[in-house]
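Q: Hi! First time doing this. I have a protein sequence and I read that you can turn it into a structure. Is that right? Here it is:
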Amino acid sequence: MARIRIGILTGGGDVPGLNAVIKSVVYRGSDCDCEVVGIRRGWEGLTHVNFEDPASTGRYILPLTRENTRSVDRTGGTFLHSSRTNPSKMKQIPDFLQGVEFPKAESTKGGITSIVSDMSSQVMKNIETLKLDYLIAIGGDDTLSYAARLDKMGMKVIAIPKTMDNDVRNTEYCIGFSTAISRASDAINRQRTTVGSHERIGIFRVFGRDAGYTALYTAYVTSIRCAIPEYKFNLEKMIDLLMADKKNNPSNYSLMVLSEGAEWEDHKMQEYGEPDAYGHRKKMSVAEDFSTELKHRFSEETVVSDLTYDLRSGDPDFTDRLIASTFGTIALDAVLEGKSGLMAAIQGGCYALVAIPDPKLGPRKVDIATMYNTDRYRPNYSNKLGLPVFLTKG
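A: Yes, that's right. Below is the predicted 3D structure, encoded as C-alpha cells:
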C-alpha cells in the first residue's frame, strides 16, 4: 500500500485532550506507514502559509514524529496552536496574496457588514502542495463546519469533535467536556467555604453560548440551581428560590451556575467587541447582571465567579485523555479504510463513526423536557435507567 500522508489541525478554543488526539494519530500512523503533518494555527495554517518563504512554512507546517509528540499528551491546550479562522469568509487576505482574485461577498455579523473573501481555492491549493491524502480536523461546530465544506469540495476529511460546551451534533460527547465540568464542580465546592463564611449568594458563570450542558451537568453533581440558554427563567422566581435555599441552609448561603448565554424573561444579553470569523461577539457577564438584580431588589451580597477560561486550562482528566486517544485511533482507522466525510463520535454510549454534522443545523441543544426541571431550575434527576453515561443520545 502506498504511503498515506495525513494533515492534522486544531481550530477554535483550546480544551484539554487535544494533544492526546494528535499523539494517538502520530503513534498509530507510524505503525501503519502513514506520514503525519501538523498544520499550525488551525485553518489559518492553510490560508496564510507561503511555501516560497521558509519562515512562513516553518511557522505553519510541522512534520510530526514519535519524537516530537512523545510527551505532548501530558499537558492541556494544543501544541499545534489554534485560531478562529474561517477560510470561506476572510476579512483580510495575506500580504503575499494581494492581487489574487478570490470570490467576494457581503457578510453581516453582529450588526456589522463587511466584504469577505472565500479563500477555499487557496486552501485546496496548499493541501495539494503539501500532497495531503487526508485531513483530520479537530474542533467544535465552527471548525467542523469548514471541514464539512472541504469534504463537499472533494478533500478526504475525518473530523473529531471537541468543545467544553459538548454541543456538537451527532455525538453524545466532545473532548474537553469532562475536564470542564470536573473543574467547575471542584471550583464551586471550594468556594462554598468563602460564600458560606460571609453568608452570601454565590453566582458562577461557565461557558455555554448556545447550549447549557456545562452548567446543567455542573449543577447536577453540585446540587445547585442553574440557568441555561435553552430556557429563559423568571427572575423573581429564581431569586425567591435562591433566597429560600439560603434561609434553609444552616450556613446561610446559596449557589447557582449560569451558562454564558443564559437569559431571563425580558432580559437581553448584551454583546461587545468585533465579531470573530464565525460571527460571534463576546457576551457581557450574565452573572454580573444577575448579581446587580439581587443587590437592587434585596440588598443581598453576592460572590460572582467567572469560571470560563479556568475550565479549559491545564491537563485533561482521565475521561478526556481516554476518549481523545480513542477518537484519534478511530480517525486513523477511518483513514486506513479509505473512509471520508465522517466524524469520530460516541452514540448510545459506544464509539462510532458518524456523518460530519450539517452546519446549517447549528449546535446541539439540551432537551428541556427530559433534562431540565423548569419549576425548580435544576437538572432532572429521574428516569435515567437505560440512558448512556452522559444521559443523552447524540
